[in-house]
Amino acid sequence: MTKDLFEVKTGLAEMLKGGVIMDVTTPKEAEIAEKAGAVSVMALERIPADIRRDGGIARASDPQMIKEIQQAVSIPVMAKCRIGHFAEAQILEALEVDYIDESEVLTPADESNHIWKHDFKTPFVCGATNLAEALRRIGEGAALIRTKGEPGTGNIVEAVRHMRTINTEMARLSTLRDDELMAVAKEMGAPFHLVAQVAATGELPVPNFSAGGIATPADASLMMQLGAETIFVGSGIFKSEDPGAMAKAMVQAATFYDNPEKLAEISAGLGSAMRGLDMNEIAPEARMQDRGW
Amino acid sequence: MLTRPEYNDLTIGIVALQGSFAKHAYSMGRLGIKSRAIRTAADLKLIDALILPGGESTTMTLLLENENLWEPLADALEILPVFGTCAGAILLGNQLEDDRVRCFNKINYTAERNAYGRQVESFSTALVVPYLLDQDFHAIFIRAPKFRDIGDDVQTLAVYGSTPVLMRQGQVLAAAFHPELTEDSGIHKYFVDHIVLKSR
């Protein structure tokens, strides 16, 4: 793929910065999200909290439902495909979704291989729990990285772990000498040219967003102060008591993330956030973040 | 790129509610020009020009209104030069029929949002900017708008095919593409040299 196409892919992520991308399951929810100031919506049939509750196989959404959401709003529409399921991704590209999320929220289709994302004109976002995973996805063509967190829990602890891990590993790379980078790339299992690039610049080669467990404006602020440039909110909005108010508050929090007085105002009287799950309540095999590598 | 002594005392205010504001600060920084993020009315004091960045025009409209920044910004636009890119260029034009976006009516055209289509139609191109730039400008178009009902008072500075993509009316400069995403501050430099410094 040419450099030109890649910058067009990351270019859309640049335009989403400082915003909130919201999970929606109906055109009506998409309109609520747009009216609250979402920069983009993620169209999916069930939000992660419900996927977790219902069990079974979670697949890409019905194209009819995605089309209805595309018609309902003017902002970019994203949709998810299963890890490694390039046929689902091809269908999403034919629908002209603006970003494809190769997502651990859905049941993986391939235990060994992720999608070769360079083959697509549509940009991809992928989740990562650490720097090596992020660089592998970028090597495959992802134009945007997000923390995986633990989706559908309303529990921020995993997203924090992933963001801090990525930051720490990037900081470490930037302290190494050139003659140490090949050994580190080998140890990390990440493409050498990307390891070298992070070592030189101290940052990811693509925008870095956060997802997984963000349930309050304070969670949004926390992730952005830790370096996330935009946040994805999945179950946190439509599982809260007053989705319209929560959505608007999240949008304000993404702009004023470093202003505690403003956040105090934004957070007041929102009703209860989603109930949430402690990590101890989740069986190890039910952890979505362990899907993909 | 050469910086000029006049640049030292300039401060460009970049509306920083959402979108590519940090990239614009970087483009100005490359010229040696200071910028300031504008998030409240108080931030509008003591600036020499404004930038409305790319991003989502619906989101910017809501944040401008909810944060009571709409009126102070409209007042500032009465006197200050402004450069708008993509969503910023949409907001600077005449009011659209789409009421999800509110416009400042500072440049005489009407924007059509996402006029090329969805993201799969986004592209980059070597843009010729006659008289202003010595070499082609690497222009990146992301879900870009087109502009119709362009008034006679609007000067077209560059076209893509036959479509105007860089326009000026007095102190207002507008681009359908994203000069802030290119490692070339040529168009930012034009804005500062020919519009901001001449307005002082």
Describe this structure in words.
- The complex is a heterodimer of chains A (293) and B (200).
- Chain A has 293 residues and is α/β, with parallel strands linked by helices.
- Chain A has 13 helices and eight strands.
- Chain A has helices at residues 3-15, 27-36, 48-54, 63-72, 86-94, 131-139, 157-173, 181-188, 192-201, 217-225, 235-238, 243-255, 260-267; strands at residues 20-24, 40-43, 77-82, 99-103, 124-128, 144-147, 208-209, 231-233.
- An eight-stranded parallel β-sheet of chain A has the order 7-6-5-4-3-2-1-8.
- In chain A, helix 2 (27-36) links the parallel strand 1 and strand 2.
- The longest helix of chain A is centred in the middle third of the chain and has 17 residues, at 157-173.
- Chain A is globular.
- Chain B is an alpha/beta fold and 200 residues long.
- Chain B has helices at residues 21-30, 57-66, 70-79, 87-92, 186-196; strands spanning 11-15, 34-38, 49-52, 82-85, 110-112, 123-127, 137-141, 146-148, 155-160, 163-169, 172-175.
- In chain B, the strands form three sheets. A seven-stranded mixed β-sheet of chain B has the order 2-1-3-4-11-10-9.
- In chain B, strand 1 (11-15), helix 1 and strand 2 (34-38) form a beta-alpha-beta unit.
- The longest helix of chain B is centred in the C-terminal third of the chain and has 11 residues, at 186-196.
- Chain B is globular and about 40 Å long.
- At the A-B interface, helix 1, helix 2 and helix 12 of A face helix 1 and helix 2 of B.
